[in-house]
Amino acid sequence: MYSVIIVDDEPAVREGMNYLIDWEKAGFCVIDSAENGLEGLELIEKERPDLVITDIKMPGLNGLGMIKEAKKKESSSRFILLSGYSDFKYAQEAISYGAIDYLLKPIDENELLTVLKKVEQQLVEETRDKKNKKHFQSYLENQTLFSYIIHKERKDEINHLSDFSAFQLIKLIRKGEKLVLQDFVQICEKCIEDNYFLYTYGDSLFMLIAAHSEMKTDQLIAELKSDTRLKATISSVGSNVDDLPNLYGEIKFLESQRYFYPDTHVLTKQSINKKAEIDSLEKLIIKLKIAIKDNQKDEIEQIVDWCVDYFQATKQDSGIVKREWSMIFIECVSFLEESMQKPIKEIEKDKILSVVWKEDSLYQTAKFLKYVFYDFGRFFYQTNEKQDIIEDIKFYSEKNYHLNLSLKDLAQEFNYSQSYLGKKFKTDTGKSYHLYLDDLRLTRAKNLLKDKHLYIYEIAKMVGYSNYDYFHKKFKKKFSISPKEYQKKWRDGEQS
């Protein structure tokens, strides 16, 4: 909708123009009016309308003078003159100053619509020309910018970027398909609050985001992840223009790592280092031993996968990786032999190690060792099947119930995982360890309450409850009587 201002000293004309045609249907909207050239000039400066319809003869500054002054101030508004027959020469002069056309009073509806159609066509063409000029200018600027980013060809035209304090570079590619620039203009308009620059380079599209303060790209990354065919490589954040070639170098390095991360759609430094940051290889071996001892197949598989991530992140020579795989295997074999007090034949060890050294794929080695460690876990289970760890836990708990016991403590004491002990205890006893420990403590407390020399708060601490109110609540819930009432009845000879 294009905006219109009407300038005429006759109120009837100003009012009548509003109802002469359906302005909205014609693609225009009358936003204001003025009764002379001075008021009209103020409105033009303030509202910057697309079109001004003005009378020629008005008191003070007339229509022609208003147009001249508006042009001096570089107004982009278009003008239509209203005139009588006697003013025809003025209308011709106004056209020489850039007015589009003139209409004779009284105004004919069809003539006005014809002129408005002419104005609309000019405005559409102007908008298209501006857009094309902007796109061309943007293309030239982006070409200069990315020549610096990719080829380090620095030019003065990019110095305006020095105003920004945060930069992030993104490379986008969709296998077998050339990316359409306009599609990503729409994504950027939707997701990015800061400035952005786009550039196509072969089948790839590069996106540079420049911010004055904190970089905000969460919404953009979520949008990119939603397209599963698209692969994005995202640099870290640079702080000045001089960092831009380094960001491109980081992009190239990350791209070289896609061999190790074929299923990662959005690749960043964090995504290729996250597993290595979680655990060292030594910690992974400890976890692997516990998973083998607990015969936890899913955990064994996950830990071996973490080892793969560790090797990917450290980017070592394949010979070093095979040596470390061998070390992991030997550590687990030694742990198995020590725990079971039963050696494994050297020939069996050598067979497995030879496979490790012959494999030429990191993933195939991991897959092979998973099955080896599954077998270790089954061996542990079969050997320990007759040993009841739950009875050991009960015995330990009966000796130490006064301490602040937990499944975590027991897992450390017996060298099992906490989750495994919790599940096994509940399966074998029908109750959780926490409930079992409460029953044990409360039964001991019941016996101690028979001792008339002990205070109730002392008994609570003796059986492992540091909080008296908590002990009182637990005791009453289990025996349907408070500790004090139970003690009194016992002393009175009413409790057996």
UniProtKB/TrEMBL annotation:
GO terms for molecular function: DNA-binding transcription factor activity; sequence-specific DNA binding. Keywords: Cytoplasm, DNA-binding, Phosphoprotein, Transcription, Transcription regulation, Two-component regulatory system. The keyword Metal-binding does not apply. The keyword Iron does not apply. GO terms for cellular component: cytoplasm. It holds the Pfam family HTH_18. It is found in: Cytoplasm. It comes from the Bacteria. Residues 391-489 form the HTH araC/xylS-type domain. The modification 4-aspartylphosphate is found at D55. One of its GO terms (biological process) is phosphorelay signal transduction system. InterPro entries: CheY-like_superfamily, Homeodomain-like_sf, HptR, HTH_AraC, Sig_transdc_resp-reg_receiver, Tscrpt_reg_AraC-type_HTH. Residues 3-120 form the Response regulatory domain. SUPFAM superfamilies: CheY-like, Homeodomain-like. This is Two-component system response regulator YesN. The lineage of its organism: Bacteria, Bacillati, Bacillota, Bacilli, Lactobacillales.
